[in-house]
Amino acid sequence: LCSSRLPWPTMPSAAEHVQRLFRRIGRSGLLIIAGVIMLLVVRELPIESSLAQVREGGALTVCVPPSLPPLLTPRSGSDQYQGSEAELVRSITAEIDVSVQWNPQPGWGDTIDPSDWGMRPSACQLVVGGIAASEETRTLMELVPYRTAEWSIAGDPGAGPTGLYLPFWGIDRGQAARWIRDQGYEQRYLFGAKAARDALQGGKVSAILSLRPVARWLAGDRQVRPVQGLSAETLVLATWKGRTTINREVRRIVPSP
């Protein structure tokens, strides 16, 4: 007698099970599953505590340059600052209900490379002082824009040398210098607020190119006019990378430009 045996049924592999599951739930189902997994992961992460630490300590520590009028000017005989950016800082601390602790950075602006200034994230929670939005500043910090500043010239550039005074972090100084040369003006670099203002008032230069808030302060009773050919800059406050909650709070308080 001949006997025949039926073949044993083959069991699907694990890979085939996965393929069948994917076909059943489709792309939208996979996205939902991925979203649920991500939500569970995020819920398990510890909450970033920079804002809580500020509130617990009762003070917001702010890194600033020694002086940058009219944005930041130290008050004589005290450790306080006045100026437009100082008032912004006070509006932030009033909202958070803490005091301001100013931390002047002596090396701020001493060289072209900010890494040489000696400023470290451990020194403060907020960084303020003529910071412009740029690739350089975005790489180092989280930026909170607060105003747009156009390029302006104080004085009469046709009457003598034109000074270039740029106490701003993130500004393309080469572009500004090229603009002066392209206009046919004689160029002079100026360093330090008082030296720049004295140069204009004393006639060493007949005009100074800078961003408008500083140009107006330098001008005194001289004319200030906007210039064509240089794009306006965005001035910002900044927090260090990773300080998520304090950055979010500053962004909530500070009006956008």
Characteristic terms for this protein:
37% helix; 8 helices; 5-stranded mixed sheet; 257 residues
Topology:
Elements: H1 14-44, H2 50-57, E1 59-64, E2 73-74, E3 81-82, H3 84-96, E4 99-104, E5 126-132, H4 135-140, E6 141-149, E7 151-155, E8 162-164, H5 173-182, E9 187-189, H6 193-201, E10 207-211, H7 212-219, E11 224-226, E12 233-240, H8 244-253
Parallel strand pairs: 1-4, 1-5, 8-9, 8-10
Antiparallel strand pairs: 2-3, 5-12, 6-12, 7-10, 7-11
Helix pairs in contact: 2-8
Tell me what portion of residues adopts beta-strand conformation. 15-25%
Oligomeric state of this protein: single chain
Structural class: alpha/beta
User: Whole-number radius of gyration?
Assistant: 29 Å
- The termini sit apart by 96 Å
Mean pLDDT: 87
Describe the structure in your own words.
With 257 residues, the chain is an alpha/beta fold. Helix content is 37%, strand content 23%. The protein contains eight helices and twelve strands. Strands 4-1-5-12-6 form a five-stranded mixed beta sheet. Strands 9-8-10-7-11 form a five-stranded mixed beta sheet, with helices on both faces. Strands 2-3 form a two-stranded antiparallel ribbon. Helix 2 crosses helix 8 (244-253). It starts with 13 loop residues before the first helix and ends with a helix. The model has no long low-confidence stretch (mean pLDDT 87).
